[in-house]
Each structure stands twice: as structure tokens, then as C-alpha cells.
């Protein structure tokens, strides 16, 4: 690609900065740093800028393809709706014809019976009945006709046929048609038949469908029919309505800066075009300047081939100058005979990549300039003190023990200078030893203060860091999985490189999760849990952390086996481990930790139980799971008892603990609607009591939970290292569904879209909630409702993911909704207790986790539908 002005300016700046200097220490360091910067800059330029240009160009081009495919899907669904309308209208007409013949037969029977009672001759009665039927009409001037078995027309509104034998009054083809109808009706009894017949007011034969019935009692055949071109007019009206809706949709679509979509048919008529000069006209005379062929024929040739048509065209600001390169993609809808085309100028596709490359170069130049200035500053800070230190050493060598460097810096040079000054002063009166001790103590205090500040900043930064970091991890992990699926199976060496990268990405996600748990910003994913099983696993995990000097005694009450509690099992396990490790650390000389669990029934007592510890707030009556931790340590002091639940409070010396253990446990207990109490035992040691409510509904049985847990285990136990096995194990259940993906980050949206595609899901995309609502409304108006929505929680604009979910669920009660979040805790997605009420999947996630979350969201949607019924 040609060199831009920004790139030329950068190289000129490098030439001005590269100025050789005398070979002194500072200049040597400066030259070395400049050389490294230049090499790095050249490497970054040669390695990244061309690639970025190419990738951005491809992204812009693929976005045009994506828009065209989305419009094609909408138009194709419109066609399906028109065809369905055609079939329904035809069936409705057939039902009406059957009713007309039934009515005529009933009239004929009643008329004949009445004539017989009144003594009217049969011939006279038949004549009056046929005269009445001859004047009967319905629909668009449609009529009844009656023929006897001899093919004599007895009743027909056309006087040419009425009362005559078929060969006498009809053309040979009409006579044959009528004869076939009579024979088929006599053989079948009744039925619908297609044939061609002229209208009453015209000679042209048209397609017609009639319901014909034989009446053996009277020796007659009676029929009624409609012309199919009347039905086709209604279908064409529906088609024009679909075209108008598509025109409105295309008017709001822009590709790049001035690109657009348009529609034409195989005869060269422009059905939709944003340019008034082309809209509604036949453009068969417009030619491609590059080939000299009609442009509409070349567009038809590349339809649905996946290839782009490259041609030259004019611009609105430069008409009749066909010198600008354009690219077009074409999709064809055969039923409508519509060609839907995208049109975009090539230079507009390249402009984004050029702008991005220029900005990268400018940013690199600014970075280099800043780096050079900073490097010169630090080089001077290194060489000047060294020169001063050397001059002081010369003075000391000459016998001047009062000489001092005067340098006071908190780096290696400062340490050297202070050491040198200390050595000189110790030669005199040993005063510098006291100064060194004071300086050392000051540095320790500063270090402690800095540590406290860092700990305080973690909680404030955790939310924002988690969102950005989890979004990045979503992109990294998603693309690693795609790379493994596409290339890893055939390239073992590449697979060996991708595997540790995937593990590192998952490990990074786990680190972010634990960081936010440390900051008490973790939501609850509450579910019915078999308490005894969870406690057994937690005790087994905790026992591995106890040394030979410590013992863990676990006591489970008999009724615990059937106990179910609604809580987050992961956070529950973390709370148990935290309490167990705190108790172990409180017994430095060894001892026994007793963990007891039981289901209790609390009722209001007349006399308060003095042995019961005081909980953080009054406990209402009810059934609770009671967990007690009793150690043999020194217990809580008065100060510790008052501050134990405060974040960052700890009684452990040094950096053994951050002081967040009990604070995290307290937050989890309160979010789970539980209660916590701290107390000292009479015989010594601390006692911690936790009360958690158990499930009240009997329907939440252990069997239900085991089934849900087994389902979860299947998804979690799929080996990450065997992607083929994992892929084959996934049976999506969502094939052919239409989902809306709402995500403001383009890279994350691309990864999630690929994961949804791999599950057989058709995907429409939106960058924010406003766009998503508009798209959902347009689809609903086009009778193409969505099957599901996957949306980020935090998005630009006033509408967040939860409000979007509520609005879409109000429009479509059966809609499947799944929220994504890079935060471990979103206030907008949860209530005051931190419980998330919409199905939520945390970023980063892979395809299996997304599939599992979709299944769970689908089950929740079905359960809500059944409840509403």
C-alpha cells in the first residue's frame, strides 16, 4: 500500500531525533535506547500495519456481506408469508365453493319437493329452479352452472350455452372440458377440478378451479368455480406490501459512508433504489464501463455465488464520471424474482483501514517521542549523580572528610551515594549509622502505608477491571477455541501451542473471579442444593489443609440427608473453607476444630436461651440449616469481637492475612438471607454459628436436584483438551432458530456470534439496546418473530440488558432470554441481595458453557410459560 502522510511524518521525526553524539556514558545510553526504539518501531510497522490494514478492510467488507444476508433472511421470510397467504386464500375459496354448491343442492331439493306438493309439473319446476340458479352470482361475478348427464347445459348465465347440448354451443375444446368434468363428477361423486374457461365478459380463457358434484337423484351435475387470477391479484397486493416494508427497512441501512442496498428483478426493473433517478425505472441500458455489458446481467450472474462484482460507477458529487471502483454482492429470491444487492465504493472500505493505520503511526510517533524524552531525563539522572559521586570520591581521596555527595534518591544510585556518605561520616564520628536506621524505619512505614492503600484500591477497581478483562478474555478464549477447531486437529504442533493458551485464559478468568469475590462483589447463582453432599465435599477439601497438629471433627445430624437449601454452592464452599482455615490459624499450637451441622426449627420462646450466641439481627421463626465452628484457640478479644466482620480487620501479624475472610462469609450469609453470630466458648476458643434457611417447597426434591446436578456435571466434565469429543457431545437443540445478539464490543460480538453459529442458530446483531428494540419490532411487524435473545448487561445508552430483556419478554412472552456479563456483579442485573433474576452467563465462556446456559434459559422460559398458563 502507498505510504501515507502520517507515515512520512513519522520517518522524518525519526531522522531528526537520530543525531550521533560524543561517546560519553549518557550519550551511549541515549543512542542505545534510540536504536532499540527505532528497531521496535520498524518491526511493529512492518509486522502490524499492513496486517491491520488488510484485516480492517476485510472486516468492513464482511460487514456489508452480513447486512446483505440479514436483509435476505428478512425478504425470504416475507416470501414464505406470501406463499402461505396464497395457500390459505385458495383453501378459503374452495370452502366457499363447496358451500355454494351445498346451498344450490338444498335449494333444488326443497324447490322440487314444494312443486310436487303443489302439483306443479316436473318440467315446469325444473325450469323455474334453473332460472333462479342462472341468476345467482357470488364473488367477482362468479356463477353456478347445471348440466345433465347428456352434456346439455340446463343453467348457465351465458345465453350462448343455456339450454343447449355442448357440441352445439361450445367450441370443441370447451365441449371436451365440460364432458370430462361431468364424467369425473359422476365417477368421484364430487371434487375440485382445475381447467381453463373464459369469463362471461371476455373471450380469453383463464385458469379456473371449480367444485363439481353429481346429483344422481335428478341426473344432474352442478358446479361453481372461481378464476385464479382474482386470487393472484390478492397475492400481488401482499407482494407489493412486502416490497414496501422492505423499502422502508433498506432506507435505514447504510454500508460504510455512502453504501446502500437495492432490489431489481430479472427483467431489469429497479424495484427499490435510494437514488430517485433509478428507483422504479428499467435500467437495462446501464452498462459496466469495465466490460461494456449491461450491469444488471452481470449482477444476476454473480447472484448467490459468494463472489463480488467489481465495476466502476459515478458518485453523487461527481455524476457521469464512471471512474470509481465499486463492489457488489447479490442474493436472489426466486419466488419473488428479486435480486437484492449491496453496493459500496472500494475507497470507502479502505478509508477505515487507512485512518486506523495513520492513527497507529501517529500514536507510535508520540509514544517514541515521549519515550525518548523520558529516557534522556533518566539518563541524565543516572550519569550526573555518578559524575558528582566521582568528584566527591576525589575530594575524599585528597583527605577532605567533610565532602558529601548531597544526593538523596530512592534508587540504586541513591543507595550508593548514601552508603558512600555514611562511610565517610563513620570515619569521622559514626553519625551516619543513626541516620541509616532512621531512613530504614521510614522506608518500612512507607511500605506499610502503600500496602494499605493498594488493598483499599482493589475493591474500587475490581468491577471495572473485571468487565474489561473478561471481555478481553472472551475474545482470546473464543478465538483460541475456534483456532483449535479449525486447525488444531490436523496440526498437532499447533494444538500443543493452543492448549496451554486455553488453560491460561481459563486460569485468568478464575483469577478475576477470585479477585471480585475478595472485593465482595459476587452475585449469587442460587439453586436447590443437597446440603449433606455439599458439606461432605467441603470437609474433604478442608481436611487436606490441616496439619498433623490440627484435627477436624465433623458431626452431621441424622436429618441432614434430606435437607435442601437454596443457595450458591460455590460461594457456600468458599465460606466453609474460609471459616475452617481461620479456625485452624487461630490454633497456632494445635487443637481440634469441630464442625457440626443440623436442621433446627426456631420458634418464639418465652424465656431467652442464654447459651445461644447473639446473631447480627433478630432471627424470625422457621426451619434453618445450623452450622457451628468451634475451635480450641484463644477466642475473640473485645476489640476483635467488635471489628471481626469489618473488611480488612485481622489479628494475624504481618502479611499472613488480608482480613477479608469473615467479611466475605458475612456478605455471603446475608445475601443468602441467613444470620451469623460470633461468641467465645466458656472453656476457651471461638464459636461461629451460621443459620441458612432451608427450602420450603416440597416440590424441590432431592431427585430434582440430582437431575439438575447431573446435567451440570455433564457440561462441566467435558474435557477441554479433547475438542472433537466435546463438539460431538453437544446436541444443540436450537438448530434453525433465529436469535438476536446484542453486544457493543465488536470483537466479543464476533466470538459469540461464531459460537451461536456452531450451535446451528441464525443470528441477527445489534450494538445497543435501542437498535435491538427497533430490529425486534421490525421483525415482529414482518411476522418474523425472534426465538431468542443473547444480550450483554452493560451497554452504551440509557437502556441496559435487564431492561431490554424485560421489554422483549413483554412483547414476546415465550422469548428465550440469556444475559452475558463481564462483571462478576452487576447491580442492574440483581436485586438488593445480589440474586440475579434473569439467566446469566459470566464472561469469558466457551461454546459448551454457552450451550448449557441456553438450555437452562430455555427451561426457565418454558417454566414461566407454564406458570402463566
Q: How are the SSEs ordered, and which strands pair?
A:
Layout (H helix, E strand, L loop, with lengths): L4 H13 L7 H94 L3 H13 L2 E2 L3 E7 L4 E3 L10 H4 L2 H17 L1 E9 L6 E11 L4 E8 H24 L8 E5 L5 E3 L22 H7 L7 E5 L10 E10 L4 E8 H52 L14 H17 L3 H57 L3 H27 L8 E4 H13 L6 E7 L7 E4 L1 H17 L5 E12 L19 E9 L7 H6 L17 H11 L3 E6 L5 E8 L8 H15 L6 H7 L8 E5 L3 H13 L3 E5 L2 H13 L6 E5 L8 H11 L4 E6 L18 E3 L4 H22 L1
Parallel strand pairs: 13-15, 19-20, 19-21, 21-22, 22-23
Antiparallel strand pairs: 1-2, 2-3, 2-6, 4-5, 5-6, 7-8, 7-11, 9-10, 10-11, 12-14, 15-16, 16-18, 17-18
Helix pairs in contact: 1-8, 2-3, 2-6, 2-8, 8-9, 9-10, 10-11, 10-18, 12-13, 13-15, 19-20
Given the structure, what is the number of helices?
A: 21
CATH superfamily of the largest domain: PAS domain
What is the CATH third-level topology name of the largest domain? Beta-Lactamase
Number of beta-strand segments: 23
Q: What share of residues are in beta strands?
A: 15-25%
Tell me the CATH architecture of the largest domain.
2-Layer Sandwich
pLDDT averaged residue by residue = 76
Q: Could you please describe the fold and organization of this structure?
A:
The chain is an alpha+beta fold and 869 residues long. It has 21 helices and 23 strands. Helix 1 packs parallel to helix 8 and helix 10 (432-488) runs parallel beside helix 18. The longest helix is centred in the N-terminal third of the chain and has 94 residues, at 25-118. The chain is flat and about 150 Å long. Residues 17-23, 697-730 and 831-835 have low confidence and may be disordered.
Amino acid at each position: 500500500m502507498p505510504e501515507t502522510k502520517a507515515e512520512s511524518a513519522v520517518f522524518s521525526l525519526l531522522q531528526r531525533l537520530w543525531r550521533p553524539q560524543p561517546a560519553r556514558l549518557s550519550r551511549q545510553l541515549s543512542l542505545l535506547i534510540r536504536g532499540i526504539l527505532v528497531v521496535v518501531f520498524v518491526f511493529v510497522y512492518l509486522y502490524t500495519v499492513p496486517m491491520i490494514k488488510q484485516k480492517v478492510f476485510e472486516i468492513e467488507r464482511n460487514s456489508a456481506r452480513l447486512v446483505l444476508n440479514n436483509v435476505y433472511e428478512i425478504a425470504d421470510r416475507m416470501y414464505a408469508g406470501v406463499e402461505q397467504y396464497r395457500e390459505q386464500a385458495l383453501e378459503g375459496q374452495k370452502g366457499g365453493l363447496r358451500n355454494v354448491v351445498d346451498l344450490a343442492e338444498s335449494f333444488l331439493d326443497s324447490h322440487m319437493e314444494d312443486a310436487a306438493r303443489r302439483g306443479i309439473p316436473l318440467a315446469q319446476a325444473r325450469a323455474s329452479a334453473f332460472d333462479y340458479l342462472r341468476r345467482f352470482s357470488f364473488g367477482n361475478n362468479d356463477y353456478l352452472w347445471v348440466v345433465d348427464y347428456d352434456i346439455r347445459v340446463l343453467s348457465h348465465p351465458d345465453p350462448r350455452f343455456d339450454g343447449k347440448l355442448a357440441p352445439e354451443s361450445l367450441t370443441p375444446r370447451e365441449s371436451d372440458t365440460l364432458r370430462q368434468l361431468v364424467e369425473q363428477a359422476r365417477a368421484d361423486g364430487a371434487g375440485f377440478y382445475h381447467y381453463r374457461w373464459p369469463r362471461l365478459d371476455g373471450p380469453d380463457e383463464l385458469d379456473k378451479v371449480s367444485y363439481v358434484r353429481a346429483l344422481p337423484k335428478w341426473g344432474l351435475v352442478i358446479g361453481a368455480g372461481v378464476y385464479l387470477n382474482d386470487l393472484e391479484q390478492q397475492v400481488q397486493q401482499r407482494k407489493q406490501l412486502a416490497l414496501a416494508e422492505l423499502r422502508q427497512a433498506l432506507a435505514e441501512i447504510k454500508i460504510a459512508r455512502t453504501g446502500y442496498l437495492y432490489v431489481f428483478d430479472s427483467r431489469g426493473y429497479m424495484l427499490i433504489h435510494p437514488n430517485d433517478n433509478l428507483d422504479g425505472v428499467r435500467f437495462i441500458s446501464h452498462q459496466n464501463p469495465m466490460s461494456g455489458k449491461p450491469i444488471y446481467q452481470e449482477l444476476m450472474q454473480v447472484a448467490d455465488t459468494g463472489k463480488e462484482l467489481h465495476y466502476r460507477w459515478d458518485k453523487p458529487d461527481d455524476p457521469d464520471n464512471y471512474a470509481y471502483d465499486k463492489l457488489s454482492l447479490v442474493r436472489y429470491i426466486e419466488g419473488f424474482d428479486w435480486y437484492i444487492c449491496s453496493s459500496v465504493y472500494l475507497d470507502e472500505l479502505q478509508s477505515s483501514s487507512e485512518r486506523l493505520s495513520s492513527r497507529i503511526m501517529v500514536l507510535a510517533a508520540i509514544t517514541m517521542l515521549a519515550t525518548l524524552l523520558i529516557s534522556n531525563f533518566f539518563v541524565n539522572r543516572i550519569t550526573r549523580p555518578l559524575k558528582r559521586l566521582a568528584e566527591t570520591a576525589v575530594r575524599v581521596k585528597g583527605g577532605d572528610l567533610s565532602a558529601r555527595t548531597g544526593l538523596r534518591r530512592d534508587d540504586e544510585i541513591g543507595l550508593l551515594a548514601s552508603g558512600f556518605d555514611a562511610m565517610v561520616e563513620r570515619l569521622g564520628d559514626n553519625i551516619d549509622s543513626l541516620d541509616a536506621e532512621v531512613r530504614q524505619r521510614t522506608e518500612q512505614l512507607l511500605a506499610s502505608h502503600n500496602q494499605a492503600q493498594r488493598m483499599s484500591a482493589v475493591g474500587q477497581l475490581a468491577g471495572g477491571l473485571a468487565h474489561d478483562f473478561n471481555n478481553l478474555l472472551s475474545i482470546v478464549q473464543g478465538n483460541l477455541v475456534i483456532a483449535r477447531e479449525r486447525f488444531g486437529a490436523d496440526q498437532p504442533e499447533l494444538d500443543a501451542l493452543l492448549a496451554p493458551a486455553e488453560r491460561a485464559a481459563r486460569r485468568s478468568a478464575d483469577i478475576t473471579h477470585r479477585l471480585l469475590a475478595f472485593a465482595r462483589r459476587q452475585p449469587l447463582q442460587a439453586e436447590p442444593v443437597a446440603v449433606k453432599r455439599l458439606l461432605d465435599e467441603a470437609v474433604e477439601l478442608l481436611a487436606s489443609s490441616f496439619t498433623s497438629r490440627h484435627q477436624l471433627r465433623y458431626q452431621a445430624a441424622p436429618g441432614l440427608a434430606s435437607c435442601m437449601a437454596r443457595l450458591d454452592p460455590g460461594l457456600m464452599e468458599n465460606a466453609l473453607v474460609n471459616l475452617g482455615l481461620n479456625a485452624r490459624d487461630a490454633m497456632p499450637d494445635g487443637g481440634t476444630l469441630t464442625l457440626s451441622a443440623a436442621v433446627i426449627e426456631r420458634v418464639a420462646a418465652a424465656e431467652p436461651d442464654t447459651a445461644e450466641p447473639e446473631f447480627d439481627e433478630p432471627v424470625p421463626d422457621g426451619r434453618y440449616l445450623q452450622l457451628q465452628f468451634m475451635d480450641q484457640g484463644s477466642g475473640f478479644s473485645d476489640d476483635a469481637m467488635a471489628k471481626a466482620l469489618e473488611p480488612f480487620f485481622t489479628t494475624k501479624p504481618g502479611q499472613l492475612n488480608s482480613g477479608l475472610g469473615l467479611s466475605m462469609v458475612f456478605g455471603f450469609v446475608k445475601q443468602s438471607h441467613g444470620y451469623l453470630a460470633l461468641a467465645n466458648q466458656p472453656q476457651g476458643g471461638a464459636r461461629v454459628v451460621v443459620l441458612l434457611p432451608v427450602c420450603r417447597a416440597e416440590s424441590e426434591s432431592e431427585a430434582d436436584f440430582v437431575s439438575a446436578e447431573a446435567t451440570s456435571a455433564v457440561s462441566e466434565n467435558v474435557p477441554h483438551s479433547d475438542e472433537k469429543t466435546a463438539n460431538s457431545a453437544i446436541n444443540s437443540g436450537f438448530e434453525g432458530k433465529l436469535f438476536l445478539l446484542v453486544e457493543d464490543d465488536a470483537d466479543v460480538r464476533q466470538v459469540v456470534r461464531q459460537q451461536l453459529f456452531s450451535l446451528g442458530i441464525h443470528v441477527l446483531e445489534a450494538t445497543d439496546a435501542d437498535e435491538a428494540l427497533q430490529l425486534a419490532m421490525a421483525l415482529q411487524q414482518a411476522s418474523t418473530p425472534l426465538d431468542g435473545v443473547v444480550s450483554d448487561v452493560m451497554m452504551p445508552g440509557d437502556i441496559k440488558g435487564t431492561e431490554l430483556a424485560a421489554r422483549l419478554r413483554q412483547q414476546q412472552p415465550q422469548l428465550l432470554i440469556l444475559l452475558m456479563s463481564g462483571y462478576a456483579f452487576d447491580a442492574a442485573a440483581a436485586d438488593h441481595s445480589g440474586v440475579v433474576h434473569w439467566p446469566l452467563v459470566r464472561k469469558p465462556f466457551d461454546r459448551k458453557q454457552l450451550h448449557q446456559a441456553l438450555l437452562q434459559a430455555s427451561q426457565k422460559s418454558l417454566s414461566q410459560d407454564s406458570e402463566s398458563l
